Amino acid sequence: MDAASELVRANKKLDRLEVLRDGAEERYTGEREKLEQQETPIESMLMSLKRNIEEVNQDVKRLKVQPSGALLAFFGTLTKREKGEAVIQKMKFPFQL
User: Fold this and answer.
1) Contact predicate 86/78, CB 8 Å
2) Taking the model in full, what pTM does it have?
3) DSSP symbol at 97
4) Cα(38)–Cα(28) distance, rounded to whole angstroms?
5) Are 68 and 76 in contact (CB under 8 A)?
């Protein structure tokens, strides 16, 4: 009977260990799913930032267009000193033309 009772006890322990293992697997799976769901907002934020950076780069390229012909003609008639003075004047009073 000793061997039989040891076998019964061992089977009970094995059953408890299997239950614990199953519970641990469920918790692990649940935690993994939570982490996977948390990654999605981060990825969407990164993609949004990437799109914003691309839009800003496009705006910068658009703003770097050549000055108008009239402005080029005006500066073409000035000497280097007059151009420098005009630039200094523009820096001092940027709100005036």
Assistant:
1) yes
2) 0.34
3) -
4) 15
5) no
pLDDT, tens digit, 9 for 90 and up, residues 18-65: 888 888 888 888 888 887 777 667 777 888 888 988 888 888 777 765
Longest dimension (CA), the chain: 116
Retrieve residue 72's tokens.
Answer: 């080029």
User: Residue written as tokens 């006890």?
Assistant: 9
Q: Domain boundaries in the chain?
A: 2-65, 67-97
Here the tokens at position 87 are: 């630039």
- The alpha-carbon radius of gyration of the chain (Å, integer) is 37
